[in-house]
């Protein structure tokens, strides 16, 4: 012990060097162990690669901040200054990143609960289309106009989500529904005969025959809900407008012949 005391007395900075080496070594070991555990956990839960990158980056940042604080303490920075600096920095980062943190937590929740996945046809807050990508911060939706809309994950949690993936029978089908109103100029029998004829035009073109049903009746009109089934959600972009146009044309023709 006397030998080490003499060395430390002659080279007082040696203790600081040793503590720096220890802090760096501990941080490196922690980073390696936690990263390895996270990779196994993410692989087991089948999370997307972007989630893996985000979690690992966050973990490394936390370890880096902890190591920096420890090194400042080793370097002789007074505790009160260190605490004040940490509090000020934490408050600034927290204030600047409140929305980012909220999106991060919301993104994790979406990835765990999985109300939709990449490739699904969805409607979120009035925006509908095909889910192209899900990240920690955003879900990217390809719309019928061939534009991509990015919706923050935090916003998604506050909105109603409609997933058009068909849950009955074949799980690879999407069932898209749309409403139409018809006045009382045609009797119900003739109206539904006309609708049956239109439906038959698509019976052999689609994996499942389209369907319709009356959902509302008022003094002025009748409301019908139409359902079309497709395997590729992109077909909804073209099929729904075509079917709508065909129904309108058949409706107008039936009224002129009545």
Textual characterization of the structure:
This protein is of the alpha+beta class and 258 residues long. The protein has three domains: 2-96, Helix Hairpins (Orthogonal Bundle); 115-163, Roll (SH3 type barrels); 174-257, GMP Synthetase, Chain A, domain 3 (2-Layer Sandwich). Helix content is 57%, strand content 20%. The chain is built from eight helices and eight strands, in the order αααααββββαββαββα. It has helices at 2-10, 13-45, 49-74, 79-96, 98-113, 153-157, 188-203, 234-257; strands at 121-124, 127-134, 138-142, 148-152, 161-163, 174-183, 211-217, 221-230. A five-stranded antiparallel sheet has the order 4-3-2-1-5. The longest helix has 33 residues, at 13-45. The termini are far apart.
Write a concise synopsis of the structure shown.
The protein is built from 8 helices and 8 strands.
Q: Which characteristics define this entry?
A:
single chain; 258 residues; alpha+beta; Helix Hairpins; SH3 type barrels; GMP Synthetase, Chain A, domain 3; 3 domains; five-stranded antiparallel beta sheet; three-stranded antiparallel beta sheet; 8 strands
Highest CATH level, the class of the largest domain: Mainly Alpha
How much strand content do the residues show? Answer: 15-25%
Could you give the order of strands across the largest sheet?
4-3-2-1-5
**Tally the helices: what do you get?**
8
Average pLDDT number: 79
CA-based gyration radius: 31 Å
Question: What is the topological layout?
Answer:
Layout: H1 2-10, H2 13-45, H3 49-74, H4 79-96, H5 98-113, E1 121-124, E2 127-134, E3 138-142, E4 148-152, H6 153-157, E5 161-163, E6 174-183, H7 188-203, E7 211-217, E8 221-230, H8 234-257
Antiparallel strand pairs: 1-2, 1-5, 2-3, 3-4, 6-8, 7-8
């Amino acid at each position: 012990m006397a030998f080490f005391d003499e060395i430390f007395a002659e080279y007082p900075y040696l203790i600081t060097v040793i503590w720096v080496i220890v802090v760096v070594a501990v941080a490196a070991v922690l980073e390696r162990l936690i990263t390895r555990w996270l990779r196994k956990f993410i692989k087991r839960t089948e999370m997307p690669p972007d989630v893996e990158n985000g979690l690992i980056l966050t973990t490394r940042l936390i370890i880096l901040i902890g190591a920096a604080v420890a090194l400042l303490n080793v370097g002789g920075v007074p505790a009160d200054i260190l605490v004040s600096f940490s509090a000020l920095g934490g408050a600034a980062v927290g204030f600047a990143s409140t929305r980012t943190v909220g999106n991060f937590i919301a993104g994790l929740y979406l990835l765990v609960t999985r109300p939709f996945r990449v490739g699904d046809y969805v409607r979120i807050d009035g925006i509908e289309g095909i889910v192209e990508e899900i990240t920690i911060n955003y879900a990217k939706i390809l719309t019928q106009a061939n534009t991509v809309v990015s919706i923050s994950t935090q916003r998604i949690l506050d909105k109603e989500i409609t997933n058009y993936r068909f849950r009955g029978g074949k799980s690879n089908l999407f069932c898209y529904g749309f409403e139409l109103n018809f006045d009382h100029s045609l009797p119900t029998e003739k109206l539904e005969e006309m609708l049956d004829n239109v439906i038959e035009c698509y019976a052999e073109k689609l994996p499942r025959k389209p369907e319709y049903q009356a959902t509302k009746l008022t003094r002025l009109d009748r409301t019908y809900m139409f359902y079309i089934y497709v395997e590729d959600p992109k077909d909804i972009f073209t099929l729904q407008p075509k079917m709508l146009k065909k129904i309108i044309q058949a409706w107008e023709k039936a009224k002129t012949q009545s």
